[in-house]
Amino acid sequence: MIYHYKPIEEALKSLLQHVKLELGFAEVELDNAVGMVLAEDVYAPIDLPLFDRSAVDGYAICSGAVSSASPNNPIPLKIQFGDALNSCDEAIPVVTGQKMPIGADAVVMIEDVIRDSNTIYVTRPLSKYANVSRRGEDIKAGEKIASKGEIIKPVHVAIFSALGITRIRVFEKISIGVIATGSEVVEPTYGIRAYEEGFILDSTSILIRAALSEYRFINTKWYGIIKDDEKQIKEAVLKALNENQILVITGGTGPSDHDKTFNAVINIDKNPIIIARGLAMKPGRPTSIVVIENKPVFLLSGFPVAAYIALNVVVLNFLFKALGISDEMFVEVPALVTKKVSGSIGYDTFVRARIFRCGDELCTEPVLLHGSGVLKSLLISNALFAVPRNVEGFDRGDKIWVKIL
Amino acid sequence: MIYHYKPIEEALKSLLQHVKLELGFAEVELDNAVGMVLAEDVYAPIDLPLFDRSAVDGYAICSGAVSSASPNNPIPLKIQFGDALNSCDEAIPVVTGQKMPIGADAVVMIEDVIRDSNTIYVTRPLSKYANVSRRGEDIKAGEKIASKGEIIKPVHVAIFSALGITRIRVFEKISIGVIATGSEVVEPTYGIRAYEEGFILDSTSILIRAALSEYRFINTKWYGIIKDDEKQIKEAVLKALNENQILVITGGTGPSDHDKTFNAVINIDKNPIIIARGLAMKPGRPTSIVVIENKPVFLLSGFPVAAYIALNVVVLNFLFKALGISDEMFVEVPALVTKKVSGSIGYDTFVRARIFRCGDELCTEPVLLHGSGVLKSLLISNALFAVPRNVEGFDRGDKIWVKIL
Predict the structure, then answer these.
(1) What is the CATH number of the domain that holds A77?
(2) Residue B385 has pLDDT above 50, yes or no
(3) Mean pLDDT over all residues of chain B?
(4) How far is CA A47 from CA A40, A84, B185, B292, in A?
(5) pLDDT, tens digit (0-9, with 9 covering 90-100), for A143-191
(6) Range of the domain at B40
(7) What predicted TM-score, i.e. pTM, was given to this entire model?
(8) Domain termination residue (choose one: B268, B297, B322)
(9) Cβ of B200 under 8 Å from any chain A Cβ?
(10) Is B192 on the interface with A (CB under 8 A)?
(11) Domain count of chain B?
(12) Which ipTM value was assigned to this complex?
């Protein structure tokens, strides 16, 4: 089948129309929540704080009683105990977080008073509600504190805890099967003699699996390296499709006769939906997407860098959109280009780059190592940018938006 | 004991002098390597590629034979098989990654030739080494590919794989014990009635534990919430010190009588080394550091935000330095301040902020919610910056460096 390099957005749009990812739900305890994707909006059941409370250790007082206080005019207040001031001549010791005694509207810090047996002396005025946390000032009852599709972060867990929410509903982990293909590819444990014998040690599928392992809401299942044999590939794909919701296959997507993967995949189903045979991206042109049994199968290049870029801008991009994940996949920052870089009209060109401080700006230097198999370019780069397919390139000094890896 | 607010760098410097973190080593397989800290420099054992190889599927040829090729002057080459060209009139089919046949110095892509039974026609010239990956062009034998102290990323794992390195030496996980103190603090499972009954649901220690759980090279062990009782705190601290290399305690560091934690900790040892009783930071002034039995004990505020900031700028900062971790803890980006923000002379003031695009710059808006207990400020902020202790503040329009959370 002939390539037709489809723009990435177009392919993703079509894929999202053809596939509905249906994930189950799981109730998890907060200890296991970080990194999972919230499956429902979460609202505060109560005000936080639930009442006016002291924000410090000190003495609860009437602010009006000390309005004229100064070092030359220390105001004496009698120490009382209990949950209410009888009059504004009194002060009640409070600790941080304690409910404000009735009648008190400010707290003077323990460090800021002089104490003399049963009396404290206040030497400066306090504004109303000084050192008081007001009811609901942090969070109001009914307020939405997290949304469906958010990746749960430590601060969410802290807020849920403070609100007494100890179990939350998240999406079950999504399972992604990974298959490598290629008769020439062998496991790294084979050792470097592989190269002398005409083989290549697998690094592409390992890069893909390692990158996926950074997401706690993804379960990756590995199906090994399959030879360039249509029957064997079909079997592996069927098994993996059966056990996963998404399939990623590396290698065997090229145009030559020994690239059996694409045909093996489309021949599994009577009605395969071919979303894209080739994408308008460089590197990664052979990237293809097929839907089999309502599940997306991504065919990535056998080259590690091309596969890695396609994993991010195609596979994970799809996953984030399909699950409604609101978090940005990449932090984007503005940076000055230090070296002219050419794109390729008709193709989104992804350029690995290094960003670094230059004066009070960030600069980005394209890592111009040719060859999509060049792993070192990933090692020395810490950012990625795209030259869009309708742009010829960027000149030295152009300010562009760069994604931090 | 009286506070003496020590600058953070000074405290860290002193702590690093007093404590030698001694971590064991572990050999791990690549599947378990991502996120661990490399314990040795890694050098390439071989050139990569190990020999000149084809970067595409096509035909290996002599570039000199097609220098005059054009659509009007197609150069015919006879298809041969084997690992050497007999003459420059021949072409040998090669697949991606295949060793270059002897005598060939370029590869014409399969898509770029016209084939006619035993002959291909080349219609444009190729430069020497076109579509050839040269020996060592990716990585040279002996080249350092990763350094001790690097946090292992997916791309490292891919390169190790390609080089046949399947087990690597990493630091054993560092164990950090976490204790919460405070008679008023209860587990979130207690439910929101806690507040009516004068208790507070723990969120601080949960935030600390969740934040630590994001680092795969850290093992966190939780010791529960201990009452404000010197004996009970001592017991918990002793147990936790025994079982961990670092201890983090939240709460009970304030100046009042019921804040027993600091005394409990320093009374454990005959010769406690008090690195800092208070730090020159806001929020987080009560943050204290003590060395007991050669192990650092960090006493953080009971307020979640203050504790969270101290965790990052003190505890993790120490850990990164002590382990020689070369990765940046935060990505720092330049951003324009949208609103005047005041610091506090003598204290490094940490300001939670939101960064967002504004034109072709990033802007940063300080999240000015008062109170270090205000969790929502963390929820709506995605960045953090410091107003250094010798700076009064920043004005609207100032360009500053902001750490991305």
Answers:
(1) 2.170.190.11
(2) yes
(3) 93
(4) 20, 22, 18, 41
(5) 999 999 999 999 999 999 999 999 999 999 999 999 999 998 999 999 9
(6) 25-48+150-171
(7) 0.91
(8) B322
(9) yes
(10) yes
(11) 4
(12) 0.90
